[in-house]
Amino acid sequence: MNDQRKGSDAEPTTHFGYKNVPESQKAEKVAEVFHSVAAKYDLMNDLLSGGMHRLWKRFAIELSGVRTGNRVLDIAGGTGDLTRKFSNLVGPTGQVVLADINASMLKVGRDRLLDLGVSGNVEFVQADAEKLPFPDNHFDCVTIAFGLRNVTHKEDALRSMLRVLKPGGRLLVLEFSKPTSKLMSKAYDAYSFAFMPLMGKLVTNDSESYRYLAESIRMHPNQETLKSMMVEAGFDRVTYHNMTAGVVALHRGIKP
Asked: Within a domain: residue 230?
């Protein structure tokens, strides 16, 4: 879907923010971004969202249907916000796997959760969302929060998530999306392309990573497109909920 070719023998390209790069290079470039921002990721989330990311994640947890004894896979789990909550919900008889392709983010998440005493029912796995290293029909719930837009082949990732879910299992995709009003869209553009890089420069001395993050949001499929992609991947009863006037959307699908 995102591929572009310059010639019959050329390597397919994909977007990295507003730039086109060879597909083989995108994962490495995304890794460099998150290696750069990992140490202050939580602080920047709070600053850039005004703490709203916590409310968005809370809503995702409420819609997850996770309960005692469940197995949950938290993809692109980063610093472990969702994993911590799911660990409490599934209890000692359940399991939560925090998976992230980026070793720096995974280390920050592991260290943070261990410091908070979260360990007994949590496993940390470095994994690619497009090729999840887990058995078929294994998890009751799979989540990916603010991570799908960084995946090169989103269709492959969605099919991989479907494969590891049990029949009746739920996928929740929490991601920045397209504002539902022109006024909000204009304000959000100004915020994203001026304020975000400025804060990145001031707090982390890295404006370019936050410029990429703003651009990656604009290149991500809109609400209806992502819904269609989930249906095409094999999910049933796909719905989405807009939050903060569509700045963020939560998609939910069920494995038949």
From this structure: yes
Bind-site residues? 79, 100, 128-129
Determine what percent of the chain is predicted with pLDDT higher than 70: 95
Integer CA distances (angstroms), 17 to 21, 177, 214, in order: 10, 14, 8
Phi, psi torsion values for 249, nearest 5 degrees: -130, 145
Q: What is the token pair recorded at 205?
A: 């001395």
Q: Angle 239-23-196 (CA atoms, 0-180°, nearest 5)?
A: 65
Whether residue 193 lies inside any domain: the answer is no
Please enumerate in sequence order all residues whose Cβ is within 8 A of that of 84, keeping only pairs 6 or more positions apart, or say none.
113, 116, 118
- pLDDT at residue 78 is higher than 70: yes
Structural domain includes residue 3:
no
The encoded tokens of residue 52 equal 């709203």
- Known binding-site residues for S-adenosyl-L-methionine equal 79, 100, 128-129
- Per DSSP bridges, beta strands 13-16 and 19-22 are antiparallel
Main-chain dihedrals φ then ψ at residue 117, nearest 5 degrees: 80, 15
Domain tally for the chain?
1
- Stated pTM of the model: 0.88
The predicted pLDDT at position 130 comes to: 97
Q: Is the confidence at residue 10, as pLDDT, over 70?
A: yes
State the CATH number of the domain containing residue 58: 3.40.50.150
Specify if 75 maps to a domain.
yes
Q: CB within 8 A of 7, min separation 6: which ones?
A: none
170: containing domain: 38-179+215-254
Q: Cα(first)–Cα(last) distance of the chain, in Å?
A: 24
